[in-house]
Amino acid sequence: MNTVIAKISSPDYYSKSLPEAAEIIKNGGLVAFPTETVYGLGANALDTDAVAKIFEAKGRPQDNPLIVHIAFPDEIKKYAYTSSYTGCEERLNSLVKRFMPGPLTVILPKKDIVPDIVTAGMRSVAIRCPSNKTANELIIASGVSIAAPSANLSGKPSPTRAEHVFTDMNGKIPMIIDGGDTDIGLESTVISLLAGKTKLLRPGGVTFEELKELCPDIEADPAVRGKLPDGQRPLAPGMKYRHYAPKAQIIAVKGREEKILSYFKEKLLNGAGILCYDEDKLILPSSENAISFGAKNDKNAQAAQLFERLREFDLKPVSVIYTRYPDDTGLGLAVFNRLLKACGFDTVNADLL
Ligand code: TXA
Ligand code: MG
User: What is the predicted pLDDT for the residue at 244?
Assistant: First the structure.
């Protein structure tokens, strides 16, 4: 299959490419598209055969459910029960008012209209209303809701540019809509509103602190910050996979600044990869194997660059990467989660070495 890349800046995007993309979705095909978080790989959410193609193109395990993307928050009611317990509707409404459209996914009891393949047989459904204009226009033009995981091959870092999607999906899908770099660079925040509780399942662009302001009783699933005991499953099935992982082994390093830097230096000289802050590069020996992912105090930059930098390491002859990681406040929790998950939540303390 020939994979066409349609740039949103092209003069015929609205007259030709967008209608073609909508036609592909309506006819049961796949289209990759930008969102404010990462690129998604979309299909008509109500078409079982179309959704099956997503699992095939990504090599995605069948037990990992997809997010249903809608153009308007009002449509949540079409796919999910919004008042399954007292207070659910009010909570959802306040979340919708503050964060939707935007990088927040909510999990609610599913209605029968949602095919089982979308929810991997679960009785709940994940729903999100992206704020990205291109994503919204595609959903509206297609006239259906769009089931979409991140548009990477399963196990690879999520794509933040059309080129990343092309690397993973060339020949497998008919069209990639190129909207340039995504804004946030990490996937949406996923929260569950099931069974009378509000739980954070995956940290993302909407921070835990922001959610706490609206939902003081919100709890974070232990899988967000640490490794679950053997046999215990995270509430979001996707969180159990070693996602976001480059080909090399990755090891997170903590400790005092000077200790971390001398440890990095030693490892770099021994041929390891180093994923560091911009400031560190000025101190470390110059090397192609030291890649920075933003300034130390700029978590927005770290989120925006992390996945692209991990993809860069896949092209380098390194078998192990030592990495910095931010503290777990604000957007830092999402960066921390993706990096620590890639290392199986093991860290090395440079102070003790
Ligand atoms: O930002 C995003 O959310 C991107 C863009 C494309 O919208 N999408 C995305 O989808 O990250 P995906 O499939 O890569 O991640 C969805 C996560 C997975 O961890 C999945 O297990 C979880 O959401 N999930 C989906 N439905 C669920 C459900 N009913 N219950 C629990 N977790 C669910
Ligand atoms: Mg994904």
Answer: 67
